[in-house]
Specification:
By secondary structure, the protein is an alpha+beta fold. It is built from 2 helices and 6 strands. It has a 6-stranded antiparallel β-sheet, with no helix packed on it. Strand 2 (about 80-85) and strand 3 (about 95-100) form a beta hairpin.
Length: about 130
């Protein structure tokens, strides 16, 4: 990404040295772009801080965020989240605990809790549906 502040200062230096009007116009243009770039960087760093948990606020609870309908990787779902293995599947599963020994997640059938299996975290599943 271009750093517009550097371009602004270079154009300003040339316009002050008497190189012509075009450099003063370029300096104005780069100044506006540099301000927009700084604002975007500030906003993105704030959002990244909230996502990473560096910045805490009252709206930063990850369990309050809804899971939208679509395909997810199993490791990105929360514990207790409902999902299907395919989009049109009838069986609904629940994500359980993580087993460190086998590096897999516990997965059990919603209607038959006694049937448990272990799945890798890279498994693509359908989640976010209403059940």
């Amino acid at each position: 990404m271009r750093d517009y502040w550097k371009l602004y200062y270079a154009a300003k230096k040339r316009s002050e040295a008497g190189k012509g009007r075009k450099y003063s116009l370029l300096a104005e243009k780069y100044y506006k772009l540099a301000q927009e770039q700084s604002e975007l960087r500030r906003q993105s760093s704030t959002m990244m801080g909230i996502r990473l948990g560096v910045i805490k606020d009252e709206y930063n609870n990850p369990y309050d965020e809804p899971v939208y309908e679509g395909f997810y990787v199993l490791r990105n779902l929360r514990k207790g989240e409902l999902f299907k293995r395919k989009m049109n599947a009838r069986k609904v599963y629940v994500k359980g605990h993580y087993d460190r020994a086998s590096k897999t997640f516990s997965v059990y059938d919603y209607e038959d809790v006694n049937s448990e299996m272990f799945a890798k975290g890279s498994l693509k599943v359908w989640a976010g549906f209403s059940y």
